[in-house]
Design a protein that fits this description.
single chain, 492 residues, mainly alpha, two-stranded antiparallel ribbon
Length: 492
């Protein structure tokens, strides 16, 4: 069984998805989906442990040796991502039964779990596979499920958000497919390990340059990197809160993984950062994303939309770390991938709890909630502090490593800009705190109760994780550093 863990990681949620249709009863479907996600989470823990102990795992499907057959290749980088995706999926599903009660009509509850598991399967497949075309296949599985999940929301604007995401996502996927096709045309292989050996020989050809451009632009569309972010605010704002909590913590992280995988492993560090001016381009776009999105977040009246723009800004921090092109910089990016997943899943789940009790997440409906929903609002405050980067939270850890990486390179002006960008987060987080704790409740709001326990437990699991991993950084830092060093060939 241990030898088959890489394929079980993907197969378990894939098989579980259609089986949900047999169970009928919503309670049983929820428990079954939670069980399947839990198995995937356990599998990811075992895979990470095995990779850290023994090195890269190569699993050949059907016994066909690559590049003739398809292989799953699990190294430190994607083992870390598998852990993040399955962990968030499992914790978010704990709140799903209550979370979808008021935001998705009852006859669509089973469909929600089917689509959720298919989206999870797609993301796990993207991360686990060692085949470039399989990346596209799993990307489509994940994306098509995502479009449908967003459209399940009761708000009619969810349909427009899903349509907008579908158009942008399809363009991104098409770009990635064109790039993969060009690489196949030049090398005759789709195996990423094989591509990494063959591409350097033909790296100065126009076809390879074009392939690289198509792949990078396609990934940046999926990543919602500024200015290709236009689909994200609506998608996060109008999707059901459970869907937003899941996607905000996982979907963009998978795109970050693809960006790292293709630039470092497939095309190679020299080609990506030396032959092409990728470093300058991403530094500029990352910083613009931080300032433009953070400034826009300050003026939002819908709190889900506020945190959606905040996510675009946080992607900017990850891109700045990535573009430094150093072990410390990539470590900072991978740390922020993990830490941001904890922050945003907690915050969007807490907003789901507000939606459950209040029926709205507009800022004006937060007036007085600090007294009416003390545990939920305390969670939002702690999550907000983590977003700012206050010490003893995970946000501080990743921003600390990002500043270290910038100072190592002597990029003091960029370090100052990163600090200024973090200060902008104080403003939009303070607006929520001010409304909840310093303003009286709106008239005729009735007696608003604290969120149900089924919501509070997963919210506080994530909030406590924000604090725990902000204090004890041994696991996250050691895995992120090991993954970064392996990509740079340090210590190999």
């Amino acid at each position: 069984m241990i030898a088959h863990l890489p394929i079980l990681q993907v197969i378990v949620p894939l098989i579980a998805a259609p089986l949900c249709l047999i169970l009928r009863r919503a309670h049983l479907v929820w428990l079954f989906a939670l069980f399947a996600s839990g198995i995937a989470f356990l599998t990811s823990i075992l895979l990470l442990q095995q990779v850290m102990d023994t090195g890269t795992i190569v699993y050949e499907l059907g016994g066909w040796e690559a590049p003739w057959g398809i292989e799953y290749r699990i190294d430190k980088l994607n083992a870390f991502l598998l852990l993040i995706i399955t962990m968030i999926s499992t914790v978010v599903l704990m709140a799903a039964k209550k979370g979808i009660e008021k935001e998705i009509s009852s006859e669509k509850h089973t469909l929600f779990y089917v689509l959720y598991l298919l989206s999870l399967t797609g993301m796990l497949g993207i991360v686990a596979t060692g085949d470039a075309f399989n990346v596209f296949v799993f990307l489509e599985i994940s994306s098509l499920s995502a479009y449908a999940l967003i459209a399940l929301g009761n708000d009619r604007r969810a349909l427009w958000a899903a349509y907008q995401y579908l158009i942008m996502g399809t363009i991104g996927a098409t770009f990635i497919l064109i790039g993969i096709g060009m690489m196949y045309q030049m090398t005759g292989t789709l195996n990423m390990e094989d591509l990494s050996r063959r591409l350097p020989e033909i790296s100065q050809t126009r076809t390879v340059f074009a392939a690289f451009a198509f792949v990078i632009v396609g990934i940046c569309l999926k990543l919602a990197l500024f200015p290709l972010h236009l689909w994200l605010p609506n998608a996060y704002s109008y999707a059901p809160s459970i869907v937003t909590a899941f996607f905000a913590a996982t979907a963009t992280k998978v795109a970050i993984y693809l960006l790292i995988r293709f630039t470092f492993s497939v095309f190679g560090l020299t080609f990506s950062f030396t032959t092409l001016p990728l470093q300058t381009l991403f530094i500029v776009l990352g910083l613009l994303g931080i300032f433009v999105a953070s400034t826009t977040a300050i003026y939002q009246q819908n709190v889900k939309r506020l945190f959606a723009y905040s996510s675009i800004a946080q992607i900017g921090y990850m891109i700045v770390g990535f573009s430094i092109s150093s072990v410390t910089g990539l470590t900072a990016t991978l740390l922020h991938v993990f830490n941001h997943a904890l922050m945003k899943s907690a915050l969007f789940l807490a907003l789901g709890a507000v939606m459950y009790r209040v029926g709205s997440v507009d800022l004006k409906h937060f007036h007085g909630l600090g007294r009416q929903m003390p545990l939920t609002m305390a969670a939002i405050v702690v999550g907000g502090l983590s977003l700012i980067g206050v010490p003893l939270t995970v946000g501080f850890v990743s921003k600390w490593y990002l500043l270290l990486a910038l100072i190592e390179q002597g990029w003091w002006p960029v370090a100052v800009l990163v600090l200024l960008g973090s200060l902008l987060a104080i403003i939009y987080v303070w607006r929520i705190v001010e409304a909840a704790y310093f303003k009286p409740p709106l008239a005729n709001t009735g007696d608003i109760k604290e969120a149900p326990l089924q919501y509070l437990i997963p919210i506080w699991i994530l909030i406590l994780a924000n604090i725990y991993f902000g204090i004890d950084t041994r696991l996250t830092v050691s895995v992120a550093q090991a993954a970064s060093q392996s990509l740079f060939g340090v210590g190999l």
